[in-house]
Structure of glutathione transferase:
Amino acid sequence: MSGKPKLHYFNGRGRMESIRWLLAAAGVEFEECFLETKDDLTKLQKDGSLLFQQVPMVEIDGMKMVQTRAILSYIAAKYNLYGKDLKDRALIDMYVEAVIDLNELLMTHTFQPADKKQQHFATIVDKATNRYFPVYEKVLKDHGQDFLVGNQFSRADVQLLETLLMAEECKPDILAKFPLLQSFKARISNIPTIKKFLQPGSQRKPPLQEKDVPKLMKIFH
């Protein structure tokens, strides 16, 4: 056994948060090594740990994996969260890619300059409620099943739930017109591994605050 996966990133959400979510949903315990300074990042870059000189990096099964999507795909396949066949996987990938697009918008909101914040918020709400959420609402309505793909729990469910909760942090009533997504949120949140991750004291990170941005800039710029 190669021990627990070890996650290298700063002590915050960013691109690592979806990886934390997926490991937690799979019931996998993991360790975290937080980057506190620019020197911490430079050390990883100089010792050859970062294939493309950037984090997130996850040590798992004897590999030092980088590139968020590659890491997520590996975890999903390893822990049976990637559907039962190629067609399931294709659907899962499509749903996840759209979730990632919305997640990126939500994640970058804190970094917007003051004069752009209002427009950026409007873009988030517009894309969430007019482009993305109607698709997932329709999927759930059309097949009438508990999960997005193949009537079994997959990474698509995990990553959609993560993004739904982030969207609600941004605008608490954002799911008002989507009753099936509301019940999906409640249902997936009650899966034991996820319920545990949503409890206080878990390794889930809080939303990034504006006061945290200067510290991050010192590490990454």
Remarks:
- The two ends are 37 Å apart (CA to CA).
